[in-house]
């Protein structure tokens, strides 16, 4: 799939987001040339905390370092994703982050989404993991000196993502039905059918050097008019 996305579709950036458990060196050796960014989700550097959150079985941190080393070996940008919640918001992660050296460290405030993770009847229930805005800000203050640190509080996260479903329809966080498929009406017409908070997208650092080559330079500098919205 990554080879098809890079070679046949010619995508500027191909990213994988994973918990790292099934990533192996042989896969990256064979397909790493097609991958720009490999993002690994890790919410704590204490294994017991990860287990209580529901991530891994006690070896996630070891695997995290392994994947980071492989990314360096095969020229892939290594990214770290952390959800800040009730179980980890007091943790000081600076030392490990400095050893891992991710090019970006996204720290999301745990987000409750109505109908998706807000009750005993949904697949997940994040109510017990929620934190206050002040608790999240204290976590950010403790880590904001890291050059890779990117804060993503609830107010910036909720409506600033563009997500396509399996039918190539944009999902709408306002609760309306998905857009028509981009295969039928094109990207811009489909975008007009959903709400996308472009200002929040920019404020949360949505524009950055997401390619390991030079292809993204024109986008960032504004030289490629076809990629502007």
- Which blocks of ≥5 consecutive residues have pLDDT under 50? 214-224
Class per helix and strand makeup? alpha/beta
For the report, how would you describe the main beta sheet?
5 strands, parallel
Q: Give the amount of beta strand, in percent.
A: 5-15%
Order of helices and strands: HEHEHHEHEHEHHHHH
What's the overall geometry? globular
Gyration radius (Cα, Å) is: 18 Å
CA distance, first residue to last residue: 27 Å
- Percent in helix: 25-40%
The count of β-strands is 5
What does this structure look like?
The chain is α/β, with parallel strands linked by helices and 229 residues long. The protein is built from eleven helices and five strands, in the order αβαβααβαβαβααααα. Strands 1-2-3-4-5 form a five-stranded parallel sheet. The protein is globular and about 50 Å long. The two termini are 27 Å apart.
Outline of the structure:
The chain is globular and about 50 Å long.
Structure keywords:
229 residues; alpha/beta; five-stranded parallel β-sheet; 11 helices; 5 strands; 34% helix; 12% strand; globular
List the helices and strands and how they pair.
Blueprint: H1 2-8, E1 15-18, H2 25-31, E2 37-41, H3 47-53, H4 60-73, E3 77-84, H5 94-100, E4 104-109, H6 133-143, E5 149-152, H7 154-157, H8 182-185, H9 187-191, H10 198-203, H11 217-221
Parallel strand pairs: 1-2, 2-3, 3-4, 4-5
């Amino acid at each position: 799939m990554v080879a098809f996305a890079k070679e046949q579709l010619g995508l500027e950036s191909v990213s994988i987001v994973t918990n790292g458990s099934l990533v192996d060196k042989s896969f990256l050796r064979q397909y790493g040339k097609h991958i720009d960014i490999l993002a690994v989700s890790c919410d704590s550097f204490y294994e017991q905390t990860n287990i209580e959150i529901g991530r891994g079985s006690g070896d996630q941190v070891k695997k995290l370092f392994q994947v980071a080393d492989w990314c360096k070996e095969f020229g892939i940008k290594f990214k770290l994703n952390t959800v800040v919640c009730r179980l980890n918001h007091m943790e000081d992660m600076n030392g490990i982050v400095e050893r891992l050296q991710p090019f970006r460290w996204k720290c999301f405030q745990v987000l409750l989404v109505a109908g998706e993770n807000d009750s005993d009847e949904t697949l997940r229930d994040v109510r017990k993991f929620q934190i206050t805005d002040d608790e999240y800000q204290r976590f950010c203050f403790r880590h904001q000196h890291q050059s890779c640190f990117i804060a993503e509080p609830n107010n910036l996260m909720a409506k600033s993502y563009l997500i396509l479903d399996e039918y190539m329809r944009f999902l709408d966080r306002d609760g309306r039905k998905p857009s028509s498929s981009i295969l039928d009406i094109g990207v811009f017409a489909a975008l007009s059918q959903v709400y996308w908070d472009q200002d929040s997208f920019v404020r949360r650092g949505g524009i950055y050097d997401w390619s390991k080559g030079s292809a993204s330079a024109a986008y960032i500098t504004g030289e490629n008019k076809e990629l502007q919205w």
